[in-house]
Amino acid sequence: MLTVTICCIFYVLASSIIVAGMFREKGPNKPAAILTVVVAIALHLFILSSEILIEPEMGQNMSMLNVASLVGWLISVTMLVASFRLPNTILLPVVYGFTGLLVLLNSLIPNSHVMQISVKPNLLIHISLALFAYACLAIASLYAVQLSYINLRLKEKNASLLHSSLPPLMAVENILFKLLLVGTVLLTLSLASGFMFLDDMFAKEQAHKTLLSLLAWGLYSVILIGHSRFGWRGKPVIWSTILGGILLTLAYFGSRFVREVILNA
Known about the structure:
Layout: H1 2-21, H2 30-52, E1 60-61, H3 64-82, H4 92-108, E2 114-115, H5 121-155, H6 169-197, H7 207-230, H8 235-262
Antiparallel strand pairs: 1-2
Helix pairs in contact: 1-2, 1-4, 2-3, 3-4, 3-5, 5-6, 5-8, 6-7, 7-8
């Protein structure tokens, strides 16, 4: 619990440094923010290894909160690396703060869903693709929210101090479509691997997950085709991207939340 507490403190500290810097002319203290979040990410990885990698003969604990915490770690690492080249400063406090919350919840709510991934390499491929697809498309949803906020601020006559921390609209939009492309490709591979390697994609407990994932995949595909052929952009793309993220979240965590958290409580 001590490690969890320290990890959460460093995530919150990194978020606070960035938020405070948004209201200063010089911007956030990047070295301090990077140092604190690197410590948080390292501690988070240690916590994940102890919670997921249990005894080899028993398997791995892939409970809903463990998976959510792992996805949060992947997104935090990706956003940290991307921050050196891409405009995402305004998103970092949200990502780090939410990831810290997931770490805390995972320690406070006991949960277990043991799987033998090590003896099923095909399942490992499918799960890895699904995790990376969800992480990438979740980041795309964050960029869609940022794009919506920039559009809103550009329509206002009086810009606040926070306005100076906002990146150019076109730069954010270009990143959004690149993330959608990569995420959709990964989601396609994840679904394809599921149909190839798993026999229960449409079983009673998995049918909703498969259908919601297919709906999200169709929505993302339509967005990309519409943008490529007809130049779609703006509000329809923003809200469709957010809707796709909601569908994937329901697919990945919806039933598991009911089964592992609500029913167990």
